[in-house]
């Protein structure tokens, strides 16, 4: 099974990740990882940090002659901004110059609770690890699982459906058209927009909303629609709570900084409708598999994949650092203050959509490996093809 951990601080020397459990024989190119890191850095509304960093992953282990060898893969991403933080983030010797402590927490951030939990007198250590900068390491690590899935015909894509007041609450008809060519086609189209929206008028409204928020010293969140195509029926399980695929997908997504809600299919709309208008009726298709005319379940039934496209929506809250700061207090003196200002983005929803694509990849990859088993790519590919053929036979008249 694939698992990964990340390490590193936002302004430390580097971010790193170790990925264990990848099968041997998976072809990996540096540009496959680095292109995803570049996608994560894009998006209208990003702050000054993205002008400093040019994220590229250095592979330190686990790959030989362009293929995985079954041992852990180690990845490292240097922080170019580290050269400006060698005093404030010194790792061993305390600087002779006084380093000012940050003691005024930001509402909506990990600052206050993290400081209390770990017994700090300064919020800086919390800021450094709670920062969404950590997701660069996650994107690098999870891209390896994404490459694995893509080699087996499974694609992951997304687009931004809303930023602040702009956008739509329904799935774009254009998204449905693009998904007929797979989720990669959807993501490729979304990437051509500076806010990863599919509708030009919605893009213009979102850009205007971001500009206004920046002028006001405010921030904006949004909604992301995520899709996974090519997934066979029967991944996941209903037999135990910790093997439910919908739970694992939701956990992966809500672990992303600032993501506060996850919806599978049209779940919230379904909650206000009678069952006759919710459940996707079954029909025998023309390609030896059951088909549904609707996909309100979002491709998951009984916590297992049902052969339809997996569709998940996630809600990202506005970033907690505001240039027009909110009311707070100094934890050292308990005096009233405006909250701390840390360099940040006005809107990071487009970047969040790329991160979301990444973090679901190991979840789907592990569900697939649990079904097929196998330690190298040829073995896994053959077993998956056999399983797909067995499904087809079950529904052949």
TrEMBL record:
Single GO MF annotation: FMN binding
Cofactor entry: FMNH2
PROSITE patterns in the record: CHORISMATE_SYNTHASE_1 (PS00787)
SUPFAM superfamilies: Chorismate synthase, AroC (SSF103263)
GO cellular component term, pick one: cytosol
Residues holding FMN: 129-131, 257-258, 302, 317-321, 343
EC number: 4.2.3.5
Gene Ontology biological process terms from the UniProt entry: amino acid biosynthetic process; aromatic amino acid family biosynthetic process; chorismate biosynthetic process
Keyword vocabulary terms for this entry: Amino-acid biosynthesis, Aromatic amino acid biosynthesis, FAD, Flavoprotein, FMN, Lyase, NADP
Tagged with keyword Amino-acid biosynthesis: yes
Keyword Lyase attributed: yes
Catalysed reaction, written as an equation: 5-O-(1-carboxyvinyl)-3-phosphoshikimate = chorismate + phosphate
Cofactor note: Reduced FMN (FMNH(2)).
Pathway: Metabolic intermediate biosynthesis; chorismate biosynthesis; chorismate from D-erythrose 4-phosphate and phosphoenolpyruvate: step 7/7
Gene3D superfamilies in alphabetical order: Chorismate synthase AroC
Residues noted as binding NADP(+) in the record, renumbered to the chain: 40, 46
The protein's role, per its UniProt record: This reaction introduces a second double bond into the aromatic ring system.
PANTHER family (alphabetical): CHORISMATE SYNTHASE
NCBIfam families with a match to the protein in the record: aroC, PRK05382.1
Similarity section: Belongs to the chorismate synthase family.
Complexes and interactors: Homotetramer.
HAMAP family for the chain: Chorismate_synth
Protein name per Swiss-Prot or TrEMBL: Chorismate synthase
Organism of origin: Prosthecochloris vibrioformis (Chlorobium vibrioforme)
């Amino acid at each position: 099974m694939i698992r990964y951990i990340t390490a590193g601080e936002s302004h430390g020397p580097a971010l790193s990740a170790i990925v264990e459990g990848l099968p041997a024989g998976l072809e990996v190119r540096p540009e496959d990882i680095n292109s995803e890191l570049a996608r994560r850095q894009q998006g209208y509304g990003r702050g000054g940090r993205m002008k400093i960093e040019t994220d590229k992953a250095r592979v330190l282990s686990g790959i030989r002659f362009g293929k995985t060898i079954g041992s852990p893969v180690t990845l490292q991403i240097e922080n170019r901004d580290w050269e400006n933080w060698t005093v404030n983030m010194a790792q061993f010797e305390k600087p002779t110059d006084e380093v000012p402590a940050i003691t005024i927490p930001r509402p909506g951030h990990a600052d206050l609770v993290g400081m209390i939990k770990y017994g700090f007198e300064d919020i800086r250590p919390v800021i450094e690890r709670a920062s969404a900068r950590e997701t660069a390491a996650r994107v690098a690590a999870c891209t390896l699982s994404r490459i694995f899935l893509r080699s087996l015909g499974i694609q992951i894509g997304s687009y931004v459906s809303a930023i602040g007041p702009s956008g739509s609450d329904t799935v774009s008809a254009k998204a449905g058209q693009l998904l007929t060519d797979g989720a990669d086609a959807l993501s490729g189209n979304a990437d051509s927009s500076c806010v990863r929206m599919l509708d030009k008028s919605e893009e213009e409204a979102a850009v205007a909303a971001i500009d206004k928020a920046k002028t006001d010293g405010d921030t904006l969140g949004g909604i992301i629609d995520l899709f996974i195509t090519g997934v066979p029926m029967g991944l996941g399980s209903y037999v135990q709570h910790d093997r439910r695929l919908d739970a694992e997908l939701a956990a992966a997504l809500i672990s992303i900084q600032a993501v506060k809600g996850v919806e599978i299919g049209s779940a919230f709309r379904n909650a206000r409708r009678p069952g006759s208008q919710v459940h996707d009726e079954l029909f025998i298709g023309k390609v030896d598999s059951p088909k549904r005319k609707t996909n309100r379940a979002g491709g998951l039934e009984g916590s297992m994949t049902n052969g339809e496209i997996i569709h998940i929506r996630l809600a990202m809250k506005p970033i907690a650092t505001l240039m027009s700061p909110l009311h707070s207090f100094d934890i050292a003196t308990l005096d009233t203050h405006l909250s701390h200002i840390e360099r940040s983005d006005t809107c990071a929803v487009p970047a969040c959509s790329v991160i979301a694509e990444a973090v679901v990849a190991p979840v789907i990859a592990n569900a697939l490996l649990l079904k097929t088993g196998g330690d190298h790519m040829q073995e896994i590919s053959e077993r998956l093809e056999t399983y797909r053929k067995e499904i087809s036979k079950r529904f052949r008249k």
